[in-house]
Design brief:
single chain, alpha/beta, Purple Acid Phosphatase, chain A, domain 2, 31% helix
Length: 334
């Protein structure tokens, strides 16, 4: 009997212990679920930047000249600015472009060399592309072809071909890289029908050329730039009527567009139009910011400005020495 009582006491104690432990444990429904592992932070968006430096209608003016008693212009000042921007820019690439009328009119050195000295200076400054203006044709097709051969960069003439043989005068376009971004530049020229040289050339209307060419360029490049010598009115027409052009860098009308002009293209994009007046009073600067989304590069921000080529810029000594050398070589008996 005594053993039975002891066994029952032990069993009761064990039961009480189990019950107490169970009461201390939270209900399974109240146990917080294991916290899921944090999703990896999304990678930062891919971005890129492009800077476009541009001049137009320099008209053979190699040296600085006076405006209201102050020295302006000249390749020595342009060279100084370009060197500084190339050195300090954070862009993936800085391009230097000329929108035409390099050779026409001009100073003594331009006329004596029929523009050969001008092209040597453009080579020295490291230009990336040039679209000839109507003034480039005034010394004849053969002279322009010689200058094109001398150029160490693409000369763009998408709407002009040679009648004899049907070959190109220059190149239609060029595709260049700026870091991860591919940029297409195509050139549109103005040739006056009344000028004798037009008899040697086939000139297609700029709108017709652009509507045929730009869709092909959009398949090959992320950014499309038209480098034109047509005038501001025609540049606006192109921007409003030809889909697919991101930037139009123009010349011919000597228009000062301090912050650029913007038009809505047929495909909904905003096309930026710029021009830097004349005679290298200014160098135009376009900055493009791009972001890669869905596997495609898109311009998310664009800005345009004009930098005066005035006395605040120190003349570049290396370029000055080159010009003096070219002047000496061009003089009779040299």
């Amino acid at each position: 009997m005594k053993k039975t009582i002891i066994a029952m006491a032990i069993a009761a104690g064990l039961f009480a212990l189990v019950h107490a432990i169970g009461a201390a444990m939270p209900d399974s429904a109240s146990v917080p679920a294991t916290k899921p592992a944090s999703a990896p932070a999304s990678a930062p968006a891919e971005t890129a930047e492009i800077t476009l430096l541009h001049i137009n209608d320099s008209h053979g003016r190699i040296d600085p000249y006076q405006v209201k008693g102050e020295p302006v212009g000249g390749y020595v000042r342009l060279a100084s600015l370009v060197k500084d921007i190339r050195k300090t820019s954070t862009s993936d690439r800085v391009f230097l472009l000329h929108a035409g009328d390099v050779l026409s009119r001009g100073d003594r050195l331009t006329r004596r060399t029929l523009g050969a000295a001008n092209v040597q200076i453009l080579n020295h400054l490291g230009f990336d592309a040039w679209t000839p203006g109507n003034g480039e044709f005034y010394d004849g097709t053969k002279n322009l072809q010689a200058r094109i051969r001398e150029a160490e960069f693409p000369v763009l003439t998408a709407n002009v071909t040679l009648k004899k043989g049907g070959g190109p005068l220059g190149r239609e376009y060029v595709i260049e890289r700026a870091g991860p971004v591919k940029m297409a530049i195509f050139g549109l020229c103005l040739v006056r029908p009344s000028h004798d040289v037009s008899a040697n050339l086939t000139v297609t209307k700029p709108g017709e050329t652009s509507k045929a060419l730009v869709p092909k360029l959009r398949e090959k490049a992320d950014v499309v730039v038209a480098l034109t010598h047509l005038g501001y009115g025609m540049d606006r027409w192109l921007g409003e009527n030809v889909p697919g052009i991101d930037v139009i860098i123009g010349g011919h009308t000597h228009t000062r567009l301090s912050g650029g002009s913007r038009v809505k293209a047929p495909d909904g994009r905003e096309t930026l139009i710029v021009q830097a007046e004349e005679y290298m009073k200014y160098c135009g600067v376009v900055n493009l910011k791009l972001r890669k989304t869905g596997g495609r590069w898109t311009i998310v921000e664009s800005a345009a400005s004009l930098v005066p080529l005035d006395e605040k810029l120190q003349p570049d000594a290396e370029t000055a020495r080159l010009i003096e050398k070219l002047k000496a070589a061009a003089e009779p008996g040299s």
